[in-house]
Amino acid sequence: MNPSDRAKWVLLAIWIGINALLFGVTFEKYNSSKEYYYLRVLTKSGLPWARASATVINFNCLLILLPVCRNMLSFLRGLDCCGMGQNLQRLLDKNLKFHKVIAYAICLFTAIHIGAHVFNFENLVRAYDGTNLEHSLSILGDSGDKTYINPVRKQNSDPPTEVFRTVAGVSGFIITIMLILMVTSSTELLRRSYFEVFWYTHHLFVIFFVGLIVHGMQGLVRRQTNTDEHDPERCKGDINKCRRLPHFESSGPQTWKWIVLPLSLYFIERCIRFVRSMQNVAITKVVKHPSNVIEIKMKKPGFNYSAGQYVFLQCPKISRLEWHPFTLTSSPEEETFSVHIRTVGDWTTSFSKACVGEGIVVNDLNNAPSISVDGPFGTSSSGYFKYTTCVFIGAGIGVTPFASILKSIWHRHEHSCPSLQIQKIYFYWICPDTNAFEWFAQLLESLESQMAEKGNHGFLSYNIYLTRGWSKEEARNIMVRDERQSVDVITGLRQKTHFGRPEWTNIFKTIANDNPSTDVGVFFCGPQSLSHTLHILCDQYSTLQEGVKFFYNKENF
After folding, report:
1. DSSP code of 394?
2. Number of neighbouring beta carbons within 10 Å of residue 349
3. Would you give the end-to-end CA distance of the chain in angstroms?
4. In the sheet that 324-327 helps form, which strands lie side by side, from edge to edge?
5. What is the tens place of the pLDDT at every residue in 399-436?
6. Long-range Cβ contacts of 63-68 (<8 Å, 24+ apart)
7. What is the pTM of this model?
8. Are 493 and 448 in contact (CB under 8 A)?
9. Pick from 247, 366, 408, 449: most CB atoms within 10 A?
10. Mind giving me the DSSP string for 302-332?
11. C-alpha to C-alpha distance for 277 and 399, rounded to whole angstroms
12. Comparing 534 with 83, which gets the higher pLDDT?
C-alpha cells in the first residue's frame, strides 16, 4: 500500500475512533448518570441513544464544511512541513470523498436520533398512565420547587402532535428535509445531468445549520440539579420519600459550541470568494471548437495560477447565483488564461449561445457576456512537478487539466527550469468519437513539432484511443490508409490512433519495467469506473515491481 493510501486509512481510522469515543462516552453519561436517572425512567432506553447520536451529529457538522473551504485547502496545499507536503496534498485531494463520508455519517446518526426520539415521545405520553413514579414525575408543576421534567404537559396527548408543538420537533423536521434534499441531489447521476439542481439544493445548508442551532434552544432534555439533596437511586419508586423534591433544569443548547468555528471559517471563505468574484474580467477571445466545445480566453488583473488548477465561472446574464467549475487549459506562462467548456447541460448550453450564438468565432467581443471568475483553486494534478516520471490519463473532456500541464511542462523544460524534476511523460487520452480529437490535437501537434526541432522525441510519449464511433470496416480502411501516410489520418499526428480501449495491465507493466527505482505520479481525470481500475493497478504494480512506486491522483471538483 502506498504511503499516501496508508495516511488516508489512518485518517479514516482516527475519524471513526473519535466518532466511536464520542458516542460511547455520551451514551454512558445518559445511561448511568444520576442527574438523568428520572429522565431515563420516563424515556426508557431511548434517551442515551438520542443523545449519543446527537453528539456524533454535532461533531460531523463541525467537520462537514472544512473539506469545501477551497481557499483554506489551497493554502494547505502549499505547506511542506517536516517533509509531509506531498502526503498532506494527497490527503487534501480526498476532500470531496471525506465530505461525502461525513455526510453519510450525519444521515446514519440522524436516522438513529429520529428513531430514538420517536420512542421517547411515545414513552413521555404514556408516562401519565404508567407506574406511580412515572405519573408523579409527569405531573410535577412549574411553581415552587416542583420544576417539571416531562416536556409533554397534557395527559392523553397524541405523540406526533406533541412533537410538532416543540421547537425541536419543527426544526428537526426541517433539518431532515434539507438533509434529504441535499444528499439525494448530490448523487452522481443528478449532479452530472442536472448540475443546477445540485447547486441550488446544496445551498440549503444555510437553512440546515440555522435549524441545527435552533434545534436545542427549547431545552427539552432536562437534568436533575440537586442529586446531593435528593438521591434518585435511594428515592426511586416514590419521589416523596426524600426530604426535598427533585429539581430539574435544561441542559441548554450545545450545538452552537460545535459549529461556531467552522461556520466562521466558511463565512470568511465566502467573503474572500465574493471580493475576488467582483474583480473585472475581460474576455479576449471566444472560439467554438468541434464536439460542442467552446474556448474562452480571459484576462484578470493580478490573476496568478499554476498548471492544473481550476476556476469557477459565473455569467450574470444566465444566473447571478450559479457558479460552475472548469479546469484551466492555458499555462501560467501565457498572457491570458483560458478554459474549454463542453456544452452538455442547461447552463453551459446557454453560456455557449450567449458567447458565440450559432457562429464559430465572436467577431465583436463587446457583445460577449460579462463574467465573474472565482479562483484559482488547486487540485491533485497541480502536484505533478514533484515526480520524475508522470503518467497523465484523460477520458473525453477530462483531458482539459493536462492541456495546461503539458504546455507548462514543455515551457519549463525548454527553458531548463531548475525546479522541474520531470524526465519522462506518458500521456493517454481515451476519446469517444473522432470530433473530440480536433481541439486538443492542435496542442499535441504543436508540442510534437517543438520536440522534434529540439531533438527531444522521447520526453513525451502519447497514445490516443478511439473507443467508439467507427465500424470494423471503417477501422480497417483507416489502418490501410495509415500504412501509406506518415501521419495519422484522424488526428494529423505522427503517433497513430489506437482503436478500442487501452490494455492497462500491459501499459503499467511496461512503465514499471522502463522506470526502475522511480516514484511515478499517475494523474487521472474521468469516470469513476476507470478510476477504480487505475487505482488498483497503481497499488498492484507498486507491490509487484520492486523499487517502483505508483502514486495515484484523481482530479476532483
Report:
1. E
2. 13
3. 25
4. 324-327, 310-314, 372-377
5. 777 878 887 877 776 666 666 677 888 888 887 765 65
6. 63/15, 63/102, 63/262, 64/99, 64/102, 64/103, 64/106, 64/262, 65/205, 65/262, 65/263, 65/265, 65/266, 66/262, 66/265, 67/95, 67/96, 67/98, 67/99, 67/102, 68/95, 68/96, 68/99, 68/266
7. 0.80
8. yes
9. 408
10. T----TT-EEEEE-TTT-SS--EEEEB-S-T
11. 26
12. 534
Q: Which positions ≥6 away from 2 have C-beta within 8 Å?
A: 538, 539, 542, 549, 550, 551, 552
3-state helix, strand, coil in the chain (%, to 5): 55, 15, 30
Cell numbers 482516527 correspond to what residue?
14
DSSP letters for 159-207: HHHHHTTSHHHHHHHHHHHHHHHHHHHTSHHHHHH-HHHHHHHHTTHHH
Q: Which residues contact 550 (CB under 8 A, 6 or more apart)?
A: 2, 391, 508, 512, 520, 522, 537, 538, 539, 541, 542
Residue matched to cell numbers 441535499:
182
Task: Specify the amino acid at residue 407.
Answer: K
Strands 282-289 and 293-299 turn out to be: antiparallel
- Cβ count near 501 (within 10 Å): 12
Give the angle subtended at the CA of 344 by the CAs of 341 and 347, to the nearest 5°: 75
pLDDT tens track for 69-111: 888 887 777 665 444 456 666 677 788 889 999 999 999 999 9
DSSP 8-state assignment for residue 545: S
- Dihedral through CA 154, CA 158, CA 163, CA 165, nearest 10? -60
Q: Are the C-beta atoms of 417 and 457 separated by less than 8 Å?
A: no
pLDDT tens-digit map of 122-165:
999 888 888 888 888 888 877 655 678 888 888 888 888 888 88
What is the SS3 assignment for 488? coil
CB-based contact 192:527 (threshold 8 Å): no
